[in-house]
Write a structure and sequence with these properties.
The chain has 391 residues and is α+β, with helices and mostly antiparallel strands. Helices cover 32% and strands 25% of the residues. The chain has twelve helices and 16 strands. The strands form three sheets. Strands 6-5-4-3-2-1-7 form a seven-stranded mixed sheet. A five-stranded antiparallel sheet has the order 14-13-12-15-16. A hairpin with a 4-residue loop joins strand 15 and strand 16. The longest helix has 20 residues.
Length: 391
């Protein structure tokens, strides 16, 4: 009997379109002899839809038309199982319930990669691939992740965190303090976004103000870091959980600007509509053209960071290499990376479908461990309880 595997994608995020591509890639790669694949599209307003044609990328060129032919659903628990339940009853006939065995989240950014979606799965009791609520939330918050990594002795750049309210109240005072702390150039980033959205490099005060204005349109908190002058980016994926994990080959993304931009990641090449689009279509060098000992250092640090932050499934860890001083810094951890970083595992000899199988096995192993925990007491303290102070 096939397993009912639901792929969740889209979402309320600036990375919505990229997530749709990742979702289509996952749906196409799942072994159809093992799984019945149910695509679940999260619209930009947060509503969930499924139906015929939701697993075909070209249909998302006209989303209103696609939604008209689908049905809006929600997750409920019924009879000890999780069901995709139609939120609108049909006038004639009835909707057949869709039971789910496993969820594969492919939602990038806010309300998906930050633990929100994982929390919904936890509440429903539905096993899901990837990081849990806590590790998702921590990795999504760049300052929090850096603080934990720094506390564990892992290399990260110095940083400042700035809140919009404080900046708007006394901008000149804040800018003076920042310039005292960091010489130019600096990098300015929203604290909770991916795909290089809202990130800028500033070489002077005017550009710093512009960078802050941009970042604050995406987040109420921004991160300021020193910009490395002689720098290369190197990425590495990790698969496993806190007890056992291994690293993929390394990659070096190709940049056309002084930072790795959204255009570099998603609009620099690849064939629209197949598995070469999305993050997998970005121009990159795999394996990275770096010394073997440096690649091994990246892989070891990637596994340490992955396990230290409690990650599971597949995550991609991005590094900054200061080539002048030959120092590596962990830049960030992506708990639901674009295309799930399958292109790194294929180069390591692990096909996409086998990678997904392993992620699903890890999800069920986590579910089994949690099933052994106690979450409630079989007592009834309400039987003799009285409400005070109502009169």
């Amino acid at each position: 009997m096939k397993m009912q595997a639901a792929v969740f994608f889209g979402g309320r995020s600036v990375e919505h379109e990229v997530s749709v591509i990742t979702g289509m890639q996952v749906a196409a790669a799942l072994n159809k002899e093992k799984y019945d694949v149910i695509p679940v599209y999260l619209a930009k307003d947060g509503a969930m839809y499924t139906g015929s044609g939701f697993d075909t990328l070209k249909n998302y060129r006209n989303i209103p038309s696609l939604l008209e032919g689908g049905r809006q659903v929600c997750l409920i628990r019924s009879g000890g199982r999780v069901v995709l339940h139609s939120t609108v009853k049909k006038m004639f006939g009835s909707d057949k319930p869709v039971y789910l065995d496993i969820a594969l989240p492919a939602v990038h950014g806010t309300f998906g990669e930050d633990g929100s979606l994982q929390g919904m799965f936890e509440m429903a009791g539905l096993p899901y691939t990837g990081c849990d609520v806590i590790s998702s939330a921590v990795c999504m918050d760049k300052p929090a992740a850096k603080a934990l990594l720094r506390g564990a002795g892992l290399p990260v750049l110095d940083d400042l965190v700035l809140e919009a309210e404080k900046y708007n109240r006394k901008p000149e005072v804040v800018l003076n303090a920042m310039e005292t702390h960091f010489p130019y150039p600096v990098m300015v980033k929203p604290t909770n976004l991916g795909s290089s959205v809202g990130i800028s490099r500033a070489d002077n005060r005017d550009r710093l103000q512009a960078a802050l204005d941009l970042a604050f349109t995406f987040s109420s908190r921004v991160l300021i870091e020193p910009a490395l002058i002689h720098m290369r980016e190197v990425n590495c994926a990790v698969i496993g959980d806190s007890s056992k994990a291994r690293a993929s080959v390394c990659e070096e993304p190709v940049m056309t600007e002084n930072i790795l931009s959204y255009r570099d990641k998603y609009q620099s090449g690849g064939k629209s509509g197949d598995k070469q689009s999305g993050m997998s279509g970005q121009k990159r060098v795999i394996p990275a053209d770096i010394p073997e000992e440096k690649a091994e250092e990246v892989q070891k640090l990637a596994v340490k960071a992955f396990r230290m932050l409690g990650c599971a499934g597949v995550a991609r860890i991005d590094f900054l290499w200061d080539t002048l001083h030959n120092e590596l810094y962990i830049n960030e951890l992506n708990t639901i990376p674009g295309s799930l970083a399958f292109y790194l595992w294929e180069k390591a000899g692990l096909p996409f479908d086998a990678m997904l199988d392993e992620m699903i096995e890890l999800a069920f192993a986590r579910q089994r461990r949690r099933a052994q925990l106690t979450y409630s007491y079989d007592v009834n303290i309400l039987q003799n309880a009285e409400l005070k102070g109502k009169d």
